């Protein structure tokens, strides 16, 4: 009887923690959306889009892809390669989570080529690692 009460109490505690964590993340995501929608600074807007692309990966893959595409377009247009690479990498993860492995491989292969051209060895290594995971 006591074991069952302890077990039930522990499960209830975990559920409450999960709900609290989700509501904190929702508040944070709502704050990012507000900043992205209201700021006049395009660079900050693109950064928030990139952040939203990341946070939506576990909530809504379609929204995550939309935000990642917005960030990618801005960073590519303004030649911010490191931020462009991060946003593109997030989109590759999104494709992987959706089961679109071929799209993920194509996207990250292109990013790998761009990383080589840019001389960004860190992004190059990151792409090679991710491609290795995708091809397993």
Provide structural commentary.
It contains 6 helices and no strands. It has 136 residues and is mainly alpha-helical. About 10% of the residues have low confidence.
Annotation keywords:
single chain, 136 residues, mainly alpha, globular
Helix and strand topology:
Elements: H1 2-38, H2 42-55, H3 61-77, H4 81-98, H5 101-118, H6 121-134
Helix pairs in contact: 1-2, 2-3, 2-4, 3-4, 4-5, 5-6
* Secondary structure category: mainly alpha
DSSP helix fraction = over 70%
Share of β-strand residues? under 5%
Cα-based radius of gyration, to the nearest Å: 19 Å
Q: Shape from CA axes? A: globular
**Distance from first to last alpha carbon:** 48 Å
* Weakly predicted, low-confidence segments: 12-24
Average pLDDT number? 82
Give the beta-strand count.
Answer: 0
Order of helices and strands: HHHHHH
Number of helices: 6
Main beta sheet, described?
none
